[in-house]
Amino acid sequence: MFGGGGGKSPVTWSPSYFPVLSRARLAHCPASPRLVRKSRGPHGVRRRESPVSLSRRSSSSCLRSRLSGILSPPARYTRWTRRSPGVGVTMATVALVLGVSLLFGWAPLGAGATSQPPNIVFLLMDDMGWGDLGVFGEPSRETPHLDQMAAEGMLFPNFYTANPLCSPSRAALLTGRLPIRNGFYTTNGHARNAYTPQEIVGGIPDSEFLLPELLKKAGYVNKIVGKWHLGHRPQFHPLKHGFDEWFGSPNCHFGPYDNKAMPNIPVYRNWEMVGRFYEDFPINHKTGEANLTQIYLKEAVDFIKKQQAHQQPFFLYWAIDATHAPVYASKSFLGTSQRGRYGDAVREIDDSIGKILKLLQDLGIKENTFVFFTSDNGAALISAPKEGGSNGPFLCGKQTTFEGGLREPAIAWWPGHIPAGQVSHQLGNVMDLFTTGLSLAGLKPPSDREIDGIDLLPAIVQGKVIDRPIFYYRGNEMMAVRVGQYKAHYWTWSNSWEEFSQGIDFCPGQNVSGVTTHSQEEHTNLPLLFHLGRDPGERFPIRVSSLEYKDALLRIFPIVEEHKRTLIPGEPQLNVCNPAVMNWAPPGCEKLRRCLTPPESKPKKCFWLH
Ligand SMILES: [Ca+2]
């Protein structure tokens, strides 16, 4: 019934991939430490360790990573305890915050402490895949700075996004909540991906708490650089949701448009537009040239320097988009990659991240700055190879709830706190960045709502693995769930036959019979089950009649049942479209004399293809 896959040998996926991965880790294990690591946080009493002891530890850490295997989480899991609002969570959070604070040698602000909580930098890529980094086995090995970042920090091979598309993923990251809760989904069609194109009427609801909004309470200054994508109408502006500064765009850099049927996307500095893509910020589709990554780099560098000079803790959300089609790179990077234009974009980003990390080092704040690198969704295989990346050994890509759609490259970097060369088998999610960010700031998550993100600090600092499920949503439907190493598909769908026949393929070259279906197939009664440790490519469903299947489903069913029973969906924000709400006359257009006249208001149901 599963296309002949059930009951096959668990020897499954690309035979060459795993050895490459292991070699990648080995190559990046530091042979000797460059720095003398300190045993406590930047504000506590410090005990210096000798380079020799650190070297031994790093080498043994690398060895452990190699031996344990990068893809297979250990069997050891603590019991997953469902978070629920109320006293229990509050007490647990307080205890954790106190514990973490003591551990790092700083205390929450407002508690009479004079020390500063750590700065927070999230480096969020757009459509970059798990397989795009050298450290994850990309054969061209063109990400030396990211690979170095991983060698100095902690790699998360089991890290996920909350949705296989930009807007809901970003809404989830900043709210710590699944898009079905925070409203970033549609009910116009079953299991349809939706986002925020120019004609979208909705956006991030005022009722949602965003990370920067909460970080302000701990004295943070917050900046977003790059793509916002949580709505472009005035009430959704990032500076109304906790950010103090913004340089970037509200939507994707699609275009050029004629400014008649559709305006070009504006670029904002803080409250006002300063120009538009293709007009003031050129992107050359023919050559692929655009200097936007350099501009975004400068914004990050200037912000970090300014905050350091002011001695204020900062949150930098660097949400750049060069790897989202149309991909681009500046002149000095064009033509330099073995991977074509997409690789040029990756190389420029890698170089920029190297510069940001070096700046933190040069300013002497690397030990007081928590940096996390990840991506908003899987590589867009539909645009690959020229304009899209790689999802490594995983099935399909962006838009789908197979591993290639939601598994993300992820690295945590915090010298002095995270031992070098570590690999965490924690199942992580972009929503955890919300909770972890709050924890770093000594703040509690809101207790009046369900928060899906967990605090990653115990995993990052203490090497713990917290058992928790990963839910894979597509629009209003929970398509799949991961519990431990098992993933159960309750629904399968790649895209429609109609689209597929027109050449739109989210799983090019990866047809798995009965799995990558072109009609929406429900498996609620007998979910398609995969063991991602043995079969990360989701090619061989476990036989329904097997004991393994029964045992796994006995674990999975109650988790899904509880999730569905307690779920309170938010008001869907991505249902209504209207050409009158496009970026015709953004704030600041008067000064520039660049206001365009909106057409008549015609609200309608948005149509989402897949
Ligand atoms: Ca994206």
Automatic annotation (TrEMBL):
Record field: catalytic activity: Hydrolysis of the 6-sulfate groups of the N-acetyl-D-galactosamine 6-sulfate units of chondroitin sulfate and of the D-galactose 6-sulfate units of keratan sulfate
Ranges in coiled-coil conformation: none
Gene Ontology molecular-function annotations: arylsulfatase activity; metal ion binding; N-acetylgalactosamine-6-sulfatase activity
Compositionally biased tracts (Basic residues): 35-46
Localization: Lysosome
Biased composition (Low complexity): 51-60
Cofactor note: Binds 1 Ca(2+) ion per subunit.
Pfam family, one: Sulfatase_C
Top-level enzyme category: hydrolase
CDD domains: GALNS (cd16157)
Glycosylation sites: 291, 511
Residue intervals of the Sulfatase N-terminal domain: 118-442
Cofactors that this protein relies on: Ca(2+)
Active site residues of this protein: 166 (nucleophile), 229
Membrane-crossing residue ranges in chain numbering: 86-109
EC number annotated for this UniProt entry: 3.1.6.4
Similarity remark: Belongs to the sulfatase family.
Protein name as catalogued: N-acetylgalactosamine-6-sulfatase
Organism expressing this protein natively: Monodelphis domestica (Gray short-tailed opossum)
Gene: GALNS
